[in-house]
Amino acid sequence: MSPRSTPGPGVTPRTALTIAGSDSGGGAGVQADLKTFLACGVHGMSAITAVTVQNSLGVSGFHEIPAETVRDQVRVVTTDIGANAVKTGMLASAGIIEAVAGTCDELGIGRAAEIPLVVDPVAASMHGDSLLADSALGAVREVLLPRATLTTPNLDEVRLLTGVEVTRRADLRKAAEAVLALGPRWVLIKAGHLAADSDCVDLLVGAGGEVIELPGPRHPTEHTHGGGDTLAAAVTAALAQGRDLVDAVRVGKRYIMRAVAAAYPLGGGVGPVSAFWRVSDVPW
Ligand SMILES: Nc1ncnc2c1ncn2[C@@H]1O[C@H](COP(=O)(O)OP(=O)(O)O)[C@@H](O)[C@H]1O
Ligand SMILES: Cc1ncc(COP(=O)(O)O)c(N)n1
């Protein structure tokens, strides 16, 4: 039976795969991605790259999964179940990035292939704890970004990858062009950290010259843990549902605006954006 956009009994839903790290606090990483996939009506799968020791106060350590085990997770799910879209998050090391890139080529995943690849170039947690070896930045630039259908850097990641500093909305275009020069088909620059701006206006730019602003209100909350993962996962889910890239990014922006508006405090530090706004039918 062919997949359809709303899963029902006995009907295979569309599928999405996240290749990312586990967040023990449940707010970001694989946990955020799987919640978002569910909320967007796709069957979520995961290839775990690292297990982080993390709560609302930060990341106190992580254990990297061997690159071959990451590769094998991707292979077994895509060759059996199949993935309609793939997302990467925390990749931890150059060895894992190279294994993921090779596996994407082998399985037809990426900008030059059939299955779209969304690359969230995660370098550090919002608390500033490193999630990527310094020596792996070159692999993100040279190996990962050229294969991306879409990449979704935040302003810190733009600076790390390109050296471009964004301090006002007018700088976003220059930042996008610098990222596009590294080879992705599309870039979505996330402006959540542009504190000087009273709104959150992200910018989507394509290698074909497309420029699209994604405006949204800035909500007065500090609880935005997992926001970047959630946005990229919602875009990935929409791509898996067969939407075109621009439409999928618009869906992602609508999803994250609702998730940030519903964000909640948790623990003694920073709480997560919420997937609860999509849950309307709790079974009791
Ligand atoms: N306070 C906020 N109010 C509304 N949207 C926000 C807020 N903070 C971030 N966002 C949005 O959440 C998404 C993630 O952005 P950002 O925080 O920049 O990424 P990251 O989580 O990767 O650091 C973007 O769409 C951004 O515009
Ligand atoms: C496993 C994992 N992946 C990604 C993030 C980034 O999320 P944030 O920037 O909200 O800390 C994280 N903290 N942990």
TrEMBL record:
Domain of life: Bacteria
Keywords on record: Kinase, Thiamine biosynthesis, Transferase
Function: Catalyzes the phosphorylation of hydroxymethylpyrimidine phosphate (HMP-P) to HMP-PP, and of HMP to HMP-P.
SUPFAM superfamilies: Ribokinase-like
Region (Disordered): 1-25
One GO MF term attached to the UniProt entry: kinase activity
Protein's UniProt keywords contain Kinase: yes
Name of the featured protein: Hydroxymethylpyrimidine/phosphomethylpyrimidine kinase
UniProt xrefs under Pfam families: Phos_pyr_kin
Catalytic activity line of the entry: 4-amino-2-methyl-5-(phosphooxymethyl)pyrimidine + ATP = 4-amino-2-methyl-5-(diphosphooxymethyl)pyrimidine + ADP; 4-amino-5-hydroxymethyl-2-methylpyrimidine + ATP = 4-amino-2-methyl-5-(phosphooxymethyl)pyrimidine + ADP + H(+)
Membrane-crossing segments per the record: none
Domain spans labelled Pyridoxamine kinase/Phosphomethylpyrimidine kinase: 23-273
PANTHER family: HYDROXYMETHYLPYRIMIDINE_PHOSPHOMETHYLPYRIMIDINE KINASE THI20-RELATED, PHOSPHOMETHYLPYRIMIDINE KINASE
Keyword Glycoprotein appears in the UniProt entry: no
Pathway info: Cofactor biosynthesis; thiamine diphosphate biosynthesis; 4-amino-2-methyl-5-diphosphomethylpyrimidine from 5-amino-1-(5-phospho-D-ribosyl)imidazole: step 3/3
Organism field: Actinoalloteichus caeruleus DSM 43889
